[in-house]
Amino acid sequence: MSTTKLGATGEDIAAQYLEGLGYYVLERNYRFEKAEVDLVCFEPAEVYEQGGELVFVEVKTRRGVGFGLPEEAVTPEKQRNVIKAAKAFLYERHLEGSPCRFDVISILLKNDQPEIEHFKNAFWSF
């Protein structure tokens, strides 16, 4: 499986996982210049709270740990690129100031079952 196909498979798994938790996937592979964010989601608030928040999700998928855990590939440079894309997304949609966060979803494809780890608030910006 090519790295492009592996990444797309991971993003599909992550989107299904998040939708199963009640998130809405608003956009996939949002690009601004050379910056990209894999998934832009909305997580509704609990029943008794108001609002919700936008979640910018970086998905990392690997077949093994020979090169480290998937989440270890979210380097400071990668974080800066995701933040740049997120800022553009918010600006283009006139959503500046909206509550948002940055999550990382790590997927390890072993056998038939993916191992998924979800890191909420994995890094900060703004």
In DSSP terms, counting alpha (H) and pi (I) runs of 4 or more, how many helices?
A: 2
**Based on helices, strands and strand pairing, what is the structural class?**
alpha+beta
Instruction: List the domain count as a whole number.
Output: 1
The residue fraction in helices comes out at 25-40%
Level-2 CATH architecture: 3-Layer(aba) Sandwich
The end-to-end distance, rounded to whole angstroms, is 37 Å
Written as H for each helix and E for each strand, in order along the chain, the element string is: HEEEHEE
Strand content: 35-45%
Going across the biggest sheet, name each strand in turn: 1-2-3-4-5
Oligomer: single chain
Low-confidence stretches: none
Could you describe the 3D structure shown?
With 126 residues, this protein is an alpha+beta fold. It has one domain: Trna Endonuclease, Chain: A, domain 1 (3-Layer(aba) Sandwich). Helix content is 28%, strand content 41%. A five-stranded mixed beta sheet has the order 1-2-3-4-5.
Q: What is shown here, in short?
A:
The chain is of the alpha+beta class. The chain has a single domain (3-123), classed as 3-Layer(aba) Sandwich (Trna Endonuclease, Chain: A, domain 1). It is built from two helices and five strands.
Helix and strand layout, with pairings?
Blueprint: H1 3-20, E1 24-32, E2 35-44, E3 52-62, H2 76-92, E4 100-110, E5 113-123
Parallel strand pairs: 3-4
Antiparallel strand pairs: 1-2, 2-3, 4-5
